[in-house]
């Protein structure tokens, strides 16, 4: 028997409005709730099973990075931007470093840009695989978690092999990426940039990631309960999405093929082939599906990149004490969660005069009051999970 | 990637006359919204008077197709600083600069609008009716800079606890942890000895060097 969604909806409404006395009540969800991915609190006013006024309360994770950036110098700031969206810490470094390089008018060696591209895509896979693990779990399906996290670990191992860190790589330097040196050498000889086995291990890992995508699709896409919980739920029309600044997979799921990797010139994405995945209905299901396809596209990008990465230096010549000339610029990049950008204002000093951090999840969850209006209480969890936010990225 | 763009000689805020690929676009934006455009490092920045703020962004949305609300924030241009380095050249007049970036969703065109607000009592019309996403961004700018957005339905604190006094992103707001103890990281970088005769690798980043210095000491 298939679940007729209209019927289920109709029955829930009947029982709420006719049979039960349902006085209005306020339900607090979080700040410590597994579905909030950190510390987000929702104050939901509900009538029976339906929420009619949902107010997100954020700020529990606010660390004041914009203020801290004003008292730190440029190399130190990469360590704090790592901690914004911590499931894809590597990707946060890219727009910041690019902004500083833009003001310094530095030419970054191509090999460094390709290494950045490979690692950014790995960060994207790791982030989306977390979503593949956690989202079905929130809907009650445990098994996909084991498949997704296993491959995420494989990807993180590769990232760790190159950068030394799973979550907070701090790997980018102004003008390139961090070089590896021989240990104890007084002459500090550059020994290698990528680990010797990197290419081989990456090839294997990408095959495995593509394989797990098939498995996840089999597991989740054929599951009637998940389909019933996600199809037609939390529909986000494109015109609402753009007005709220919703970006990334959430925007593409609403049918807008907008991907900053295609339009902004910050990494050599024009030299690899990949598709911009879009959904049709902008519902929870499409947001899941778009992310699954994006893992596949990222794996394809990495496969192409390790074949075409040029050799050469990985660091441009920069002064030891980095001073960024006077000027301002906005650089944005397609992060796993959406548009991540930095508005960098420099006064010619060792640190920024002002660094505005535009994080994707902040704008993405500002849609919550709109999208949760009239949602069933269990759907609140399904819709919130499908937006895939991280509280570090919301609160900064 | 910067060098691939024909960036002209003047590093700060080039005028629209510079042969930049975005020149035509910047001019057309300035014409439609009635402002002054500059291209600063591949970012089109259009300054509009504060009383035409909402009008300009409405035109940007409706006539230029810049429908995606990216962010809204502010910059405190102040001579007095409690933390961080003060401005190299003191300003004649302190002000708050409100910035708002909007973008299209096809070619990736984006414009940063900016306007000047009074330093002591900044207020401006809210953008909520133009871009719904401005709601949270304006609440953030309100608590961080003390900007009052006229017509905003709820300017309660977003990040800060209720009853928090002061506007943390104002340059005069002290960073308390820094007041108690100077940031040790600054010492690491500034006091680094210039090692002679080390060759090329010297230019590399601090991280590796620091690690190795520690190693040598050990």
Structure description:
The complex is a heterodimer of chains A (396) and B (218). Chain A is α+β, with helices and mostly antiparallel strands and 396 residues long. Chain A has one domain (24-395): Cytochrome-c3 Hydrogenase, chain B. Chain A has 16 helices and ten strands. The model of chain A has no long low-confidence stretch (mean pLDDT 86). With 218 residues, chain B is an alpha/beta fold. Chain B has six helices and seven strands; from the N terminus they run αββαββββαβααα. Chain B has helices spanning 23-33, 53-62, 134-145, 176-180, 184-190, 206-217, and strands at 36-40, 43-47, 68-77, 95-103, 110-118, 123-125, 148-150. Chain B has a five-stranded mixed sheet with strand order 1-2-5-4-3, covered by helices on one side. In chain B, strands 6-7 form a two-stranded parallel ribbon. In chain B, a hairpin with a 6-residue loop joins β4 and β5 (110-118). The longest helix of chain B has 12 residues, at 134-145. Chain B is globular. Mean pLDDT of chain B is 77; it is low at 1-11 and 195-218.
Cα Rg of chain B? 22 Å
Secondary structure class of chain B reads alpha/beta
Overall average pLDDT of chain A? 86
Mean pLDDT of chain B: 77
- Strand line-up across the major sheet of chain A: 1-2-3
| Multimeric status of the protein | heterodimer
The number of distinct helices of chain B, counting runs of at least 4 residues, comes to: 6
In angstroms, what separates the terminal alpha carbons of chain B?
A: 40 Å
CATH superfamily of chain A: Cytochrome-c3 Hydrogenase, chain B
CATH topology of the largest domain in chain B: Beta Polymerase, domain 2
Uncertain segments of chain A of ≥5 residues (pLDDT<50)? Answer: none
Q: Which architecture name of chain A does CATH use?
A: Orthogonal Bundle
Our Rg estimate of chain A from Cα atoms comes to 22 Å
């Amino acid at each position: 028997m298939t679940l007729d969604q209209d019927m289920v909806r109709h029955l829930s409404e009947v029982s709420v409005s006719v049979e039960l006395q349902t006085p209005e009540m306020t339900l607090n969800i979080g700040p410590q709730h597994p579905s909030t991915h950190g510390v987000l609190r929702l104050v939901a006013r509900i009538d029976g099973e339906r929420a009619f006024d949902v107010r997100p309360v954020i700020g529990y994770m606010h660390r004041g990075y914009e203020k801290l950036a004003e008292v730190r110098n440029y190399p130190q700031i990469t360590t704090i931007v790592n901690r914004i969206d911590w499931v894809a810490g590597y990707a946060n470094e890219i727009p910041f470093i690019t902004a500083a390089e833009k003001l310094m008018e530095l030419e970054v060696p191509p090999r460094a840009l390709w290494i950045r591209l490979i690692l950014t895509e790995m960060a994207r896979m790791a982030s989306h695989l977390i979503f593949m693990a956690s989202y079905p779990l929130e809907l009650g399906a445990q098994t996909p978690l084991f498949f997704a996290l296993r491959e995420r670990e494989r990807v993180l191992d590769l990232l760790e092999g190159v950068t030394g860190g799973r979550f907070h790589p701090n790997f980018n330097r102004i003008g390139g990426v961090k070089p590896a040196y021989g240990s104890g050498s007084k002459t500090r000889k550059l020994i290698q940039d990528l680990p010797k086995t990197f290419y081989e291990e990456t090839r294997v890992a990408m095959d495995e990631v593509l394989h797990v995508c098939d498995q996840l699709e089999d597991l989740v896409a054929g599951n009637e309960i998940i389909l019933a919980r996600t199809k037609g739920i939390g529909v986000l029309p494109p015109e609402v999405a753009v007005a709220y600044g919703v970006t990334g997979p959430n925007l593409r799921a609403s049918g807008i093929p907008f991907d900053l990797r295609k339009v902004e010139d910050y990494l050599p994405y024009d030299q690899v082939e990949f598709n911009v995945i879009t959904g049709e209905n902008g519902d929870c299901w499409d947001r899941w599906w778009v992310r699954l396809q994006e893992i596949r596209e990222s794996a394809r990008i990495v496969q192409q990149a390790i074949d075409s990465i040029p050799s050469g230096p990985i660091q441009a010549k920069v002064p030891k004490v980095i001073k960024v000339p006077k000027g301002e610029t906005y650089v944005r990049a397609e992060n796993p969660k959406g548009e991540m950008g930095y508005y960098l204002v420099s006064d010619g000093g060792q640190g920024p005069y002002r660094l505005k951090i535009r994080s994707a999840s902040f704008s993405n969850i500002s849609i919550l009051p709109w999208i949760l209006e009239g949602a069933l209480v269990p759907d609140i969890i399904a819709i919130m999970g499908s937006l895939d936010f991280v509280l570090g990225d919301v609160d900064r | 990637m910067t060098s691939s763009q024909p960036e002209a000689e003047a590093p700060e805020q080039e005028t629209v006359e510079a042969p930049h690929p975005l020149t035509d676009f910047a001019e057309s934006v300035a014409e439609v919204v009635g402002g002054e455009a500059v291209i600063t490092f591949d970012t089109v920045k259009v300054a509009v008077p504060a009383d035409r703020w909402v009008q300009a962004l409405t035109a940007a949305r409706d006539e230029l197709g810049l429908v995606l609300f990216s962010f809204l924030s502010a910059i405190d241009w102040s001579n007095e600083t409690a933390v961080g380095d003060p401005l190299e050249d003191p300003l004649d007049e302190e002000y708050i600069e409100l910035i708002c970036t909007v973008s299209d969703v096809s070619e990736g065109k984006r414009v940063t609008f900016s306007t000047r607000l009074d330093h002591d009592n900044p207020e401006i019309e809210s953008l909520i009716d133009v871009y719904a996403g401005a709601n949270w961004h304006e609440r953030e700018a309100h608590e961080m800079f003390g900007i009052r957005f006229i017509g905003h339905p709820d300017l309660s604190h977003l990040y800060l606890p209720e009853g928090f006094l002061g506007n943390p992103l104002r340059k005069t707001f002290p960073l308390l942890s820094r007041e108690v103890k100077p940031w040790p990281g600054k010492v690491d970088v500034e006091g680094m000895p210039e090692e002679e005769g080390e060759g090329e690798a010297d230019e590399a980043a601090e991280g590796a060097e620091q690690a190795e210095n520690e190693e040598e000491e050990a």
